[in-house]
Design brief:
The complex is a heterodimer. Chain A is of the alpha+beta class. In chain A, about 45% of the residues lie in helices and about 10% in strands. Chain A has helices at about 10-15, 15-25, 40-50, 80-90, 100-115, 125-140, 150-160, 170-190, 200-205, 215-245, 245-255, 260-270, 300-305, 340-355, and strands at about 30, 35-40, 55, 120-125, 205, 210, 275-280, 285, 290, 295-300, 360-365, 385. Chain B has helices at about 25-30, 55-60, 65-70, and strands at about 1-5, 15-20, 50-55, 85, 100. The longest helix of chain B has 7 residues, at about 65-70. Classes of the chains: A alpha+beta, B alpha+beta.
C-alpha cells in the first residue's frame, strides 16, 4: 500500500520516487500521516497557486506551521491584506534596488572563500555557506554583527519538525521564540533610532492610516530573517551538492562563470530546498476523481511539479543548458518568493568567489544527513574533498 | 481556457491554449515563448513580463491596479498606452482570441 508521509526520514532523504508515483497514480492524494491532500503535477500546482481565493494561505503556508504565525506574515495572508503588506517591503528586494549590495556581497563571499584556501576537505555548510548567508542577511538588513552564528543556528532549527511527533518539538519552538525576541529587539532599536532602511520603514509603516498590527511587524521580520538565512543557505547546499555530483556541469561553470545563472535555474528546478508548501481550501473542489472539502489542507509539492515529465522532458536529468522556464523553485503567483533577485545575485556571486579558491571538488559522504523538515529539504552537513 | 496568441520579438506568432485562472505570463513561460522573463515568478515585482495588448482587448480588460501601474514605470522597453504586465492578466473565456505582442527587451 503506497503512502506518502512528509514527516518520514525516507522522504527527507529522497522524495522523488514517491513524487513520481503520486503524479502517475494518485495526483490528488490524501496523506493520513500529514492530514493533507498532496498535489504533485505541475499543472495542478500552478492552477492552485494562481487561485488564492480557493487555496488560501491564511491558515499558514509551512507544512508544519509555527504557533501564532498564520495570518501575520506575507506568506500567511491572502490579498488584499497580503498585497498591501508586500507593497511595504517589496521595493527593498527589487533587482534595481539591490545594486548597492552587490559589492558588499562579493566582499563577504571572497572573505568566506579565502578561509578555505589550503584545506583538503571541509564542510561546505559550516565552513562556507552558513558564514556567507548570515553575513549577507546582516548586511541587507543592517543588523549589528556579533551574535550572527547564534541567529543562524536558531533560524535553521525553527524550520525543522520532529519526525516522531509530527509536530514542532520543544527545541524548535524555543528557537522560534528566541528568534521573535531577537526580531523584537531589532525593531525596538530601529524605532528608537530610525535609519533609512527596511526594518525602520516597515516597523513604522501604516496601511490606510492604521499602524501595522504589532504581530505583523514582529513575525514578518522574523520570517525575513528565517528565509534570508535558512532558505538561502539550504539552496546553496543543494547547489553545491549538484555541482559536486555533476562534474561536467561543475567544469562548465568554473570555466565560464556566466553559466552559473543557468545552473542556478536548473538547480531551482531539479531539487530546490523549498519542496512543499501548504494551502487551505475555501470551498469544495473535485480533482482527479477525489472530493476535497472546504477546510481541508492541501500540500503543493513544488519539488514534484519540477520533476513532472508532463512539463519538463527527461526531468530526472540535471542539465544546466535546459533553461527550465516556469519552474516552481520559488513557488509562484502572488506568493512567489520575495527574495528571488537577492537569492539569484547572492548565489551567483558566492559560487563565483568559491570557485576561485576551490575550483574542483567532490562529495565525500555517500549518505547525507538530511534536515528533518516537512517543508524544506537540504543536508545538515556536506563534506567536500578538494581535487 | 483561452486561446492566446503571443507575438515574439522575432515576429513569430505562437498560439497557446492557456487554462482558466493561469496568468498570461505563465502561459508563455511554461510553453517556451520567447521575449518574456517573469523573473519574480508572478508577484508583480520585476516588470519583466511586459507586453502590448491588442487594441480590441486593451479597452475591455480590467484596468491595471496600483501595483501594476507602479511596476509599469520600470519596464525596459517603450511603455505604450496598451502596455501591461502579463502576470496580472488571468486567462478566461473573455480573453479568448487575445493577441499579446512582446517587446524587444525585458531587462
Amino acid at each position: 500500500m503506497f503512502s506518502f508521509d512528509p514527516y518520514s526520514p525516507a522522504i527527507d532523504a529522497d522524495p522523488f520516487p514517491f513524487y513520481k508515483t503520486l503524479r502517475d497514480e494518485a495526483p490528488c492524494f490524501w496523506s493520513p500521516e500529514a492530514q493533507t491532500w498532496v498535489l504533485s503535477r505541475y499543472a495542478d500546482i500552478v492552477s492552485a497557486g494562481q487561485d488564492w481565493q480557493t487555496y488560501s494561505s491564511a491558515k499558514g503556508n509551512l507544512m508544519t506551521e509555527l504557533p501564532g504565525r498564520a495570518g501575520a506574515t506575507l506568506g500567511t495572508t491572502d490579498p488584499p491584506r497580503h498585497d498591501r503588506l508586500r507593497g511595504l517591503i517589496q521595493h527593498a528586494f527589487m533587482k534595481r534596488n539591490l545594486e548597492s549590495l552587490a559589492g558588499p556581497i562579493r566582499d563577504i563571499a571572497a572573505t568566506a572563500a579565502a578561509e578555505l584556501a589550503g584545506r583538503r576537505q571541509f564542510d561546505f555548510i559550516a565552513d562556507f555557506s552558513s558564514k556567507f548567508t548570515v553575513r549577507v542577511l546582516f548586511a541587507a538588513l543592517g543588523l549589528p554583527l556579533g551574535d550572527e552564528m547564534t541567529v543562524r543556528e536558531k533560524a535553521v532549527l525553527m524550520v525543522q519538525s520532529d519526525p516522531h511527533t509530527r509536530a514542532k518539538g520543544p527545541e524548535h519552538i524555543a528557537a522560534y521564540s528566541w528568534m521573535t525576541d531577537y526580531a523584537a529587539g531589532v525593531i525596538a532599536e530601529r524605532r528608537a533610532r530610525p535609519l533609512n532602511d527596511l526594518i525602520s520603514h516597515f516597523s513604522m509603516a501604516e496601511i490606510d492610516g492604521d499602524r501595522l498590527d504589532e504581530r505583523e511587524v514582529l513575525l514578518t521580520t522574523t520570517t525575513l530573517i528565517m528565509a534570508g538565512i535558512e532558505s538561502l543557505g539550504g539552496f546553496m547546499s543543494m547547489f553545491a551538492l549538484n555541482l559536486a555530483d555533476h562534474a561536467d556541469a561543475r567544469r562548465d561553470v568554473v570555466a565560464d562563470a556566466a553559466l552559473l545563472q543557468e545552473a542556478v535555474e536548473e538547480s531551482l528546478r531539479f531539487n530546490t530546498s523549498a519542496q512543499r508548501f501548504r494551502r487551505c481550501l475555501q470551498k469544495d473542489v473535485e480533482l482527479h476523481g477525489q472530493q476535497m472539502r472546504a477546510g481541508d489542507f492541501v500540500c503543493l509539492a513544488y519539488g514534484s511539479g519540477n520533476r513532472d515529465e508532463r512539463q519538463f522532458p527527461d526531468p530526472d536529468r540535471y542539465d544546466i543548458s535546459r533553461k527550465p522556464r516556469g519552474h516552481l523553485g520559488f513557488g509562484g503567483g502572488v506568493h512567489a518568493c520575495l527574495g528571488t533577485a537577492i537569492a539569484r545575485l547572492s548565489v551567483k556571486v558566492a559560487f563565483d568567489e568559491f570557485h576561485k579558491v576551490v575550483p574542483d571538488y567532490r562529495r565525500v559522504q555517500e549518505h547525507l544527513p538530511w534536515m528533518p523538515s516537512s517543508t524544506f529539504r537540504s543536508p545538515t552537513r556536506l563534506e567536500l574533498a578538494v581535487q | 481556457m483561452a486561446r492566446i496568441t503571443y507575438i515574439e520579438p522575432s515576429g513569430r506568432s505562437v498560439p497557446v491554449d492557456v487554462p482558466d485562472g493561469w496568468s498570461l505570463m505563465l502561459g508563455a513561460t511554461s510553453n517556451g515563448v520567447d521575449g518574456i522573463v517573469g523573473e519574480c515568478g508572478g508577484s508583480c515585482a520585476c516588470a519583466t513580463c511586459h507586453c502590448y495588448v491588442d487594441e480590441a482587448h486593451a479597452v475591455t480588460l480590467p484596468p491595471p491596479g496600483e501595483s501594476e501601474l507602479s511596476m509599469l514605470e520600470a519596464v525596459a522597453a517603450e511603455r505604450r498606452p496598451n502596455s501591461r504586465l502579463a502576470c496580472q492578466l488571468k486567462a478566461s473565456a473573455a480573453l479568448d482570441g487575445l493577441v499579446l505582442t512582446l517587446p524587444e527587451c525585458q531587462e
